[in-house]
Each structure stands twice: as structure tokens, then as C-alpha cells.
Amino acid sequence: MVEDRITDGRRIAELLASELDGRRDDELERIAVTDADRDVEPTVEGARAYTIVRDGERFARVFVHPDRAHVELEAGQEAGLEAARERDLRVRPKATTPPRTIVFVESGAAVKRATAVVQAASRAAGAGDRQ
Fold first, then answer.
1. Mean pLDDT, contiguous 10-residue spans, the chain (131 residues)
2. Residue 54 lies in a domain
3. Fewer CB within 10 Å, N or C, the chain?
4. One-character DSSP codes across 23-60
5. Given this model, what pLDDT does residue 22 score?
């Protein structure tokens, strides 16, 4: 059986939102997807698709590109960076004030790994990791 690889940024972001909202285990109980732009059009720079909140506070934002999505972590960044590297996801710090960590989700198959990164960052944020 041959499966198509999902590499459409908007579809990847939708799958990630479903995974974050649909699972009710561990840290994901604290996570919600909000402010979704249902008409978002992917751009090369990345267009904001939705916000991820943790316990009612903005925690991350998801952006869509034509061929991928990316999660911009605002809390739990060190844990997110480490978790992404452990799961072979492309990741990099973003030199802004305050700093962010960007995790690239380049296929539908990477969504579960990206969900695990969000969980790790959320746990760290709960432990006071605001780097």
C-alpha cells in the first residue's frame, strides 16, 4: 500500500491542531488551540494559523508555509529544543526579544513528534522554564 506524504503546510497545521485538541492525556489537558484563522493562506515567510494556549495563557503560535508548518514556542523553549532534536525535527532558536524556539513540521508524519515536543515544552513551562 502506498501512502501520499502530506507536505501542504495548511494541512499539516490542521493535523497538528487536531492532535493537540483531540488527545486528552498528560500535558495536553492544559493545551488548547485558539484564534484559528480558517482562511489562512500559506506564505513563504509563514502566516499565523492559530495560537496554542496553556492554562489560558499564550504558549505558542503555529504558522503555515506552502510546504510545511512551524511552531513558535514562547515558553519551555529549552525543553522544546531538546525534544525536537531527539525526534529528528528541524529546530532553531529565534533571536527576538523575548526569544522563541521554532520547530519545523515538514510532513503529516511529523505531527505526532511535534505534539510530543509541545508536551515536553509544556511540562517545562509548568516547572518554571521560561527561557
1. 69 95 80 94 96 95 97 95 97 89 96 96 77 43
2. yes
3. N
4. --SGGGGGEEEES--TT----SS-EEEEEEEETTEEEE
5. 80
Element (H or E) spanning 22, and its range? helix 9-22
Per-residue pLDDT at 128:
63
Number of domains in the chain: 1
pLDDT of residue 129: 40
Cβ atoms of 21 and 40 closer than 8 Å? no
The answer to whether the peptide bond before residue 98 is cis (omega within 30 degrees of 0) is yes
Q: Using CB atoms within 10 A of its CB, is residue 95 exposed (0-12), middle (13-18) or buried (19+)?
A: exposed
CATH code of residue 45: 3.90.1150
Residue 88 placed within a domain: yes
Give the global pTM.
0.90
Quote the CA–CA distance of 48 and 32 in Å, as a whole number: 16
The order of strands in the sheet holding 91-94 is 31-34, 47-54, 57-64, 69-73, 100-105, 91-94
Cα–Cα separations (whole angstroms), residue 91 to 39, 77, 100, 123: 27, 11, 11, 18
Domain membership of residue 120 (yes or no) is yes
Domain containing 114 equals: 9-126
